[in-house]
Amino acid sequence: MHQRTTPPTGSTPTTGRRRMARKALLAASALGVVTALMAPVRAGAAPAPASPTAATPLAANGQLSVCGRQLCNDSGQAVALNGMSTHGTQWYAQCVTDGSLDALAQDWRADVLRVSTYVQEGGYETDPAGFTARAQKFVDAAHARGMYAVIDWHMLSPGDPNANLSRAKTFFTAMAKKYKNHPGVLYEIANEPSGVSWSGIKSYAEQIIPVIRAQDPDAVVLVGTRAWSSFGVSEGSDEKEVVNNPVRASNIMYTFHFYAASHREEYLNALDRASDKLPVFVTEFGTQNYAGEGANDFTMSQRYLDLMKRKKISWTNWNYSDDHRSGAVFKTGTCAGSNWTGTGVLKEAGVWIRDRIRQ
Q1: How far apart are CA 167 and CA 76, in angstroms?
Q2: What is the pLDDT of residues 44-88, one digit of tens each?
Q3: Catalytic residue (one of 188, 192, 239, 241)
Q4: Active-site annotation holds for 284
Q5: Which helix (H) or strand (E) is 120 found in, with range?
Q6: Which of 63, 123, 159, 235 has its CB 3.0 to 4.6 Å from that of 227, i.e. a possible disulfide?
C-alpha cells in the first residue's frame, strides 16, 4: 500500500436544531454563496463563478448515511462519490488552493475531496493546532465548492492506530465540534493500519467513534482495515475477520485501498466479496504500484472501477499534487503556477482519472 446501520433518528430539540442548521448550509451551498476560507487566487487563475441553477453534489444529496451496505443520500437513495485525495498537507499544501479546488469541482466535476492529515512524518504531532486549522481550511474550501470532505487521519507509521489514540481523540473532538451541524463531512479514523490485529483496530474504532458521536451523531465514520486497509489480504488474511467481528457501531463503512499494478486478482476478489457483506468506501487507490510509482496499469484499474461502479462503491484517488511520482496527477511544478484546468498540466494518470471522474 501507499507509503506514506441506521443513522440516529429522533425529534429532540437538539437534533431538530442540528437539522435546521445543516439545511441552511445546504441552501447556501446550492446558491454558491459560501465563501472559501483560503488565500486569494493567484493572478491569472480567477475562479469561474458558481452557477446558482446547478446543484452541487453536496446540495443535491445532503446528509449522507449508511443504509444496508450502501452510502445513501438524504432521500435514502444509494450514491457513489468520486473524487481525489490530497497528498500530505505538511508537504503539498501549496497544491490545495482556490484555483486547484475550482478545477477539481468545476472542471473535473468531483464529488469529494479527501483531506489527508498525516500524524507522524512531519505532520500533526509537530503542531496539532496548526494542522487542525489547516485541515479545517481545506474542508471549508471543499464545502464552499459543493463537495463533500473526507477528514483523513493519515496514520501510517507506526501502523497500530492505538499508538496515537490520545492524539486522535483530540483531533476528532475538534473536527466534529466544528462540523457537527454540517452535512458535508465523513470521518476516516485510521488510514492504513499495519502490523496490528483486527481486534486491535476494532478496539481503537470503538473508542474513537463515541468521541465523534458525542459532537456529531449523524456523520458517516470510515474505519480502516488490517494490512494497509486491504481487509487483511496483505498480511495473509481476508475480509472474514471483519465480517465475523464487525465494529460495534452504526452508520459506519470500512475502507479498502489498492494500487492496481501491485494488487491483482486476490485483492480485486476480496473487494468484491467484502462489499457483498459490508459497506465499503475505497478512500485511496492508484493506477501504479503500491508506492504510487512506476508504470500505470489502466487495464487492471478499469476492472476495479467497473466493479465499484456496478456496486456503487465510493472512491478517492491518490493523489491531487505535483509530487514527482507517477501517482501524482499534476506534472511536477504545476503547484508553483496558476493553471489547473484541462489536461495540459496533467500526467498520464491525471488525464485518465480526470476522465473517469468526469464520466
Answers
A1: 34
A2: 333 343 433 469 999 999 999 999 999 999 999 999 999 999 999
A3: 192
A4: yes
A5: none
A6: 235
